[in-house]
Amino acid sequence: MKSAIQLPLKDEKEIIDKAKDWAVMHGVGMRSRQNFDEDSIVFAPFTLLPSLIKKENFQEVVMTQRVMSELMHRVAHDHDFLESSLRKTVEYDSFTKKLFELYTTVYNEGFGQVLSLGIFRSDYLFDESANRMKQVEFNTIASSFASLSSQVAKLHRYVLREIGRDALTEKLPDNPALEGVCAGIVHAWDIYNKKTAVVMFLVEETTYNICDQRFMEFEIRRQQPLIRVIRRKFSELSTAKLGPKKQLFLKDDLEVAVVYMRTGYSPNQYRDEGDWETRLLIERSSAIKCPSVQYQLAGTKKVQQVLATPGTVERFITNAEDVKNIRNLFTEIYSLDLDAGGDLAYNLALKNPEDFVLKPQREGGGNNTYGSDIPNLLNSMTPEERQSMILMKLIKPVPIKNMIIQRGQPCAVSDVISELGIFSYVIGSASDIVAVKPAGHMLRTKLATSTEGGVASGYGALDSPFLV
């Protein structure tokens, strides 16, 4: 169990205090969930030091992100594949059903905008038994922390210099995540080709992760000063309407070029049927959606499971080497359908629950079931209901040493594990990919004893890779 630098550090309290202040003063912050106040922020959880990642593992997932993104783009635009993959899921998962109904409506009507923008993030854990990275999930909606990840890389360079280890900053890879994801939004706005049209961030009714979003807004303006970014909640869009060419108009005839969604990935973010009608209006419009509903469906856990079955990737990717590179990063994922394969997976989960994680069709952290809780949950479900879940082999990384800095919590050297996310953006239609670009990375770290790792949901800490 190693660390980037031997822990504990000399003058530890002094450097921790400096790191906290640096974080607050450079926007590594969030609004407090415990004491919410729109006029104040607290530092987001972060690690004191960068965490060890093998250089070859880092390079492998970075190099594969382009073709992985192309795969997900093509999945999203294959109607028959989405329909067959999600047929059972929509029967027993009401949220996926609502999304699929929305998708079916705009598919049958004809899309008001054939182009979609995807800001994707593929997440990985290092698997000790396979000696390589394995994919945890592929995020297609509200892929967050590009902004703060760029800042945390700078924070760790500051810490290394403060403790007299300047030379080690070369081990931290450049992280243009903020610039990269914002370039995708600017590119989509350019394609829409109307200088007075705005970029709309569709945000939660209460925003905690404000710094991550505002950094994006400011960076978009820096890259293209003509772009005006506005923030709107579902509750503020009741008067939105479509123009004669399906343009999306808000109050005062404000035309929207790009809709960037930082909400809409969880059922509790739709307050009522009116919010679903607003989402449908957006999907019907000529605004470029990030993501479109088909991208959101492509990112479901069920689609991930189907893609992991032998021969499926080849439906979308023809190059044999690309297929191999993608498959090398997949872990074992099982359907829980009512068939021989589903029954086998069900019995495996009951017999060896410590080897698996049970996942519903949800995003945002805190939704998965582990270990001895798996049999309890499965036994509480009807055979039909289990079809809304997938069973994934538990990826078991090697813990390392680091210190997680959290507000109001004591700091101690701990065993931690890190999850690496690789960003990209894609713009394209069913017939063409206009652009697919790399867009930096993020690292989230949690205690080795913790199951969930989301920073915004309170389970993990922001980190950056130290390549060895």
Just give the CATH class of the largest domain: Alpha Beta
Strand content: 15-25%
Specify Rg, calculated over alpha carbons. 22 Å
**How many distinct helices?**
13
Percent helix among the residues?
A: 25-40%
Instruction: Name the overall outline.
Output: globular
Instruction: Summarize the biggest pleated sheet.
Output: 7 strands, antiparallel
The tally of structural domains comes to 2
CATH topology of the largest domain: Rossmann fold
Poorly predicted runs are none
Mean pLDDT: 95
CATH homologous superfamily (4th level) name of the largest domain: Glutathione synthase, substrate-binding domain superfamily, eukaryotic
Enzyme class: ligase
GO cellular component, one term: cytosol
Subunit structure: Homodimer.
Binding site for Mg(2+): 137, 139, 363
